[in-house]
Write the structure tokens for this entry.
Amino acid sequence: MRTKLIIFILIILTVVGVAAFLVPIRNIFLSGLVATRTDKNSFEEKREQILSELHLAIEEAEEIGKYKCCIEPLCTMCYLGDWIWKDGTCDCDGLIARGEWDRVCPQCQRGIEEGRCKSEIGTCSVQ
């Protein structure tokens, strides 16, 4: 009887030991899957937040007269300083009015070609 009790206790300890070993491994595996899903959601949320803030900043610059874009929706290239304009400004609309098509940012040129021109001071036919 004593031998059976010892064998039973050893079996219980073995099962508990194996379970204690497997549960953390399972949790690590599952947390990796959850982290991947969370990271993807987090990326999409961050991207949406960044784009939203960028568009708000451009709208604010437009309201105070620093951003004179010629397309709708407004370009982001000039605001980000990826063209000839600096410090969150744009004057592609002014360039159109002066006929300086070669200086209009590529994003605005593409928007005009797609029919998204909103210029009120120049004509929007790409030359």
Q: What stands out?
A: The chain has two domains: 1-64, 66-127. Helices lie at 2-63, 92-97, 106-113. DSSP finds three helices and no strands in the chain. Residues 45 and 104 are 32 Å apart (CA to CA).
